[in-house]
Amino acid sequence: MKNFHYSIKTDIHFGKGAIENLPNEIKKYGKKVLLVYGGGSIRKIGLYDKVLDLLNENNIKCIEISGVEPNPRIDTVRRGVRFVKSDKIDVILPIGGGSTIDCAKAISAGSFYDGDPWDLIVDSSKIKKVLPIISVLTLAATGSEMDAGAVISNLETREKLGFGHPDLRPKASILDPEYTYTVPKNQTAAGTADIMSHILEVYFSKNEGAYLQDRMCEALLKTCIHYGPIAYRDGENYEARANLMWASSLAINGLLSNGKSGAWSVHPIEHELSAYYDITHGVGLAILTPNWMEYVLDNTTIEKFVQYGINVWDIDKSLDKEKIAKESIEKTREFFKSLEIPSCLKEININDKHFEDMAEHCVRKGIIDGYKLLDKDSIIQIFKSSL
Amino acid sequence: MKNFHYSIKTDIHFGKGAIENLPNEIKKYGKKVLLVYGGGSIRKIGLYDKVLDLLNENNIKCIEISGVEPNPRIDTVRRGVRFVKSDKIDVILPIGGGSTIDCAKAISAGSFYDGDPWDLIVDSSKIKKVLPIISVLTLAATGSEMDAGAVISNLETREKLGFGHPDLRPKASILDPEYTYTVPKNQTAAGTADIMSHILEVYFSKNEGAYLQDRMCEALLKTCIHYGPIAYRDGENYEARANLMWASSLAINGLLSNGKSGAWSVHPIEHELSAYYDITHGVGLAILTPNWMEYVLDNTTIEKFVQYGINVWDIDKSLDKEKIAKESIEKTREFFKSLEIPSCLKEININDKHFEDMAEHCVRKGIIDGYKLLDKDSIIQIFKSSL
Predict the structure, then answer these.
(1) CA geometry: angle A234, A240, A244, nearest 5 deg
(2) What does the alpha-carbon distance between residue B256 and residue B167 come to, in Å, rounded to a whole number?
(3) Is A265 helix (H, G, I), strand (E, B) or coil?
(4) In whole angstroms, what is the distance from residue B132 CA to residue B170 CA?
(5) Chain A to chain B, count of Cβ pairs less than 8 Å apart?
(6) Distance between A125 CA and the closest CA of chain B, angstroms
(7) Which residues of B touch A255 (CB under 8 A)?
(8) What is the mean pLDDT for each group of 10 consecutive residues in chain A (387 residues)?
(9) What beta strand segments (E) does A27-119 contain?
(10) What domains can you pick out in chain A, each with its CATH number?
(11) CA B21 to the chain's CA centroid
């Protein structure tokens, strides 16, 4: 097990009615919030009105910025930062899924920075001071509600970059599974794939000795595999929504990765797809993951796939190792298909036109030192097998 | 899944050399510590000298109290509180296992209380203000390094009582697995049993829907089952010590129990044994647990035991349910035996003399509303089957 510093200080208020805790959490930091949200879905489910009532009752002033994109853009961040600077905001209050919370994080970081916020996305070390964030989650997927990172897109430069700072972890997050009842089937599926990908990125690492962490990864993967299809079929199944929601937070808040190490593999490749084609992140991950697995499976990695096959997919352990490993990948592919996620790039109208450019861009800061080294050619190969 | 508030703010510095973080953690709260420890083991491993050097180099003043008992006593707490009140202490610094950290928690709570500290153990609601605690862990067992509770014994009244307050969660804990290399075999075994018991108390609850939490319980149980025997045989196996140490913290910090509910069953019964006979807590738990399991196994609980048998003990799932359930209990019993923990009360010189009194005292505040209701007679029966 690697050395680590564990510090996960986000307060989580989980369950039915958890929104009632919102005013008290805000009042710890101030009396004026910037409410950040995407489209109209939070109005449809009554959450927007509920939050405004709570803010009013508690004399908390509120400025709004809406229209955050599914892959949140730097232009929206710039718009938010202008609001914060002109209106003396105390707290950023994103209500939505990971895109909205990510956008809020970038606004929070930009609040105390004099230059263009994009500088901070490119170089997180420039982040010195941030505004507190309190989030209300409406989609189980990215885990942004409990982690310290975010991803912002720049359509001009065709970049989708991750950034982070320990202080960007939300101070508190409200997780009421009922707010995810109306998430459409395709987003439920993509969200499940996103959660699973976060876990798989940690699970497939070269670390020895992080036995506890690997067993916890398997626990969360099994939760997604059990409840993903139930939430997909029956959007108002509370237990399914609750388990997926809590899994989304625990998958990426540091619990699994503390004590392990190694770069992520599939996420940076997918970020190229999203940056070039503005596709749903979870869909890109679901398409790439099984093909990445096939690419990295060899004599040096087979034991991990065997572990994965037996412990996560319940494959008969008396089978031949190679059979177990290959079946574990096939099970992964079939699972995403069962959620009706597109299973190849052609299905989402992506051809090989930009493979070279995307792969080149993906390794612009060096070869990906993930579970297996990935250079430009490896990435092109993974793109091709995903066609 | 039940509603919950998750708030686990202890900073953990984990791994080789983690002690170097101690001065900075202390300096967040002040410049004068009360060092609390038990016997001479922290001197033997060089930890005492190392800590004193670090404190000196950082101009942190230090008052000491040593001799904390394995079942820490209220007299020692009273002694510590007198030091704190006379010497204007800023931070309580326990170095040791759970007993030492528990004692430090009681001292911390007593620091701002005018009456006898025992009042606070009997009624935690009287705790209003506490001193910050920063712990250095040398034994993987109780999880006190990351939780908000503690247990203190009163030999006069023959009571061993748990108490707690959210602010008693250590602000930071230093977890270097190397500090547990010299833990004797019997304590390594008892510590493993203690960790497993914390998990089992949460796992066996009536809650439906906490699927994620149950899978995480299994993950941590498997970690104990895998590494307990390795640490027992080979005390200086880093990975075994590391996995057990981190499991001890995660088992009881709230991660598993948030979203579940229900009282603990075996711990209150064991506390009677420790209070009457001053035995090692983990030994009492290991003796009682399989017998408690046999007592609660029936048609209404069998499914959970089947889950436990298959997922934790890898019992063939094609077997008859009753066989799986019974085998899961037998495996539990055999596991503790394999660590050479006494397997019945007679082995530790306890007879039936006080069974009536202990059972009576155990339910003095009402029947235990645990996985299955336990009244005085049930407890006597469990004691008898543990003879």
Answers:
(1) 125
(2) 20
(3) coil
(4) 7
(5) 117
(6) 22
(7) 255
(8) 96 98 98 95 96 98 96 96 95 97 98 97 97 98 97 90 96 98 97 98 90 98 98 98 98 95 92 90 97 97 97 97 98 98 97 96 92 96 98
(9) 32-36, 61-65, 91-96
(10) 11-179 (3.40.50.1970), 183-385 (1.20.1090.10)
(11) 24
What is A100-143 written as a DSSP string?
Answer: HHHHHHHHHHHTT-SS-THHHHH-GGG------BEEEE--SSS-
Inter-chain touch B259–A246, beta carbons under 8 Å: yes
User: Residues B110, B75: contact at Cβ < 8 Å?
Assistant: no
Q: What is the pLDDT of residue B278?
A: 85
Helix, strand, or coil (residue B299) = coil
What ipTM, to 2 d.p.?
0.96
Q: Per residue in A353-372, pLDDT tens?
A: 999 999 999 999 899 999 99
Q: Which residues of B touch A (CB under 8 A)?
A: 1-9, 11-18, 21, 177, 208-209, 211-212, 215-216, 218-220, 222-223, 226-227, 238-239, 242-243, 246-247, 250, 255, 258-259
Set of chain A residues whose Cβ sits within 8 Å of the Cβ of B18: 3
A12–B243 C-beta distance less than 8 A: no
pLDDT at A275: 86
Q: Looking up tokens 């108490």, which residue turns up?
A: B163
Give the three-state DSSP class for A153: strand
Distance CA A224, CA A240 (A): 9
Q: Which two tokens stand for residue A182?
A: 């109306």
Cα–Cα distance between A80 and A327 in angstroms, integer? 47
Residues of chain B with pLDDT under 50: none
Question: In chain A, which residues have their Cβ closer than 8 Å to the Cβ of B255?
Answer: 255
